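Lay summary. Proteins are chains of building blocks that fold into shapes, and those shapes determine what they do. In this project we predict the shape from the chain. Here is one chain we studied, written as its sequence of building blocks.
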Amino acid sequence: MIRVILPPHLRTLARVTDEVSLAVDGAVTQRSVLDALEAQYPVLRGVIRDHVTLERRAFLRFFACQQDLSLELPDAPLPSAVATGAEPFMVVGALAGG
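And here is the predicted shape, written in a compact code that computers can read:
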């Protein structure tokens, strides 16, 4: 099972209070994890990724194993610690200001 941690506003939207666990078939990539997340929580479709292009929304970042994976290719394998469930895949709301 893949563990996913969502920021508070997405946990509220999905009506979950803690991290979520997902079953992912095949290779564990950003795309497969987000596909599984959106399948289990349809309300998140279009919120994390654009509906049409499936590109990450500008003010969200992806982290795992203390690495920013936001600019990695969507089909690049995630770290093995994420694939085994030892470490979570985190969706983090970015901060902006000036």
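What the prediction tells us: The chain has one domain: 2-93.
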